[in-house]
Design goal:
Length: about 120
C-alpha cells in the first residue's frame, strides 16, 4: 500500500522537471520530431515537418489560387454565352424570342449568380 501514493507524486515530479517530454518525442523548442527508429529507417524521406500555421497558410494560398482559376474560367464562359446570345438576337427578327435564347439567358443568369458568390467568398 505504500507504493500507491508514491507513483502519482513521482509522475508529478517528473512532469514538473520536464523529464517526460523527451519520452514523447518532442524537443525543447516545441517542434515535434520523429523518433530515431523512424527517422533512421531506409524508407523515410526525411521530409521536414511543417508547423500548423505554415501548412494552413499554404493550404489557404492553394485554395485561393484554385478559386481564382475557377473565377477566370467562369468569366470566360459567361463572356462566350453572352456573345452567343447577342449573335442569336442579331440574327432574329426582333419580334419573337426563341426558346434557345430564353434557355441561354437562364444559363447566363445562373452562371453570373454562381460567379458572384465565388467572388464574394474570395474577399
Amino acid at each position: 500500500m505504500l507504493f500507491r501514493p508514491v507513483l502519482p507524486l513521482t509522475l508529478l515530479l517528473l512532469i514538473s522537471l520536464g523529464a517526460v517530454s523527451p519520452l514523447f518525442g518532442q524537443s525543447d523548442q516545441g517542434v515535434p520530431r520523429l523518433p530515431d527508429i523512424i527517422r533512421n529507417s531506409p524508407d523515410h524521406t526525411n521530409a521536414p515537418i511543417t508547423n500548423d500555421d505554415q501548412a494552413q497558410r499554404e493550404q489557404a494560398l492553394r485554395a485561393a489560387q484554385m478559386r481564382q482559376e475557377e473565377i477566370k474560367r467562369d468569366t470566360q464562359k459567361l463572356f462566350e454565352l453572352s456573345a452567343q446570345l447577342k449573335d442569336q438576337m442579331d440574327k432574329g427578327n426582333g419580334q419573337v424570342l426563341s426558346v434557345d435564347a430564353v434557355k441561354k439567358t437562364e444559363e447566363i443568369e445562373k452562371l453570373a449568380h454562381k460567379l458572384k458568390g465565388k467572388m464574394k467568398s474570395a474577399y
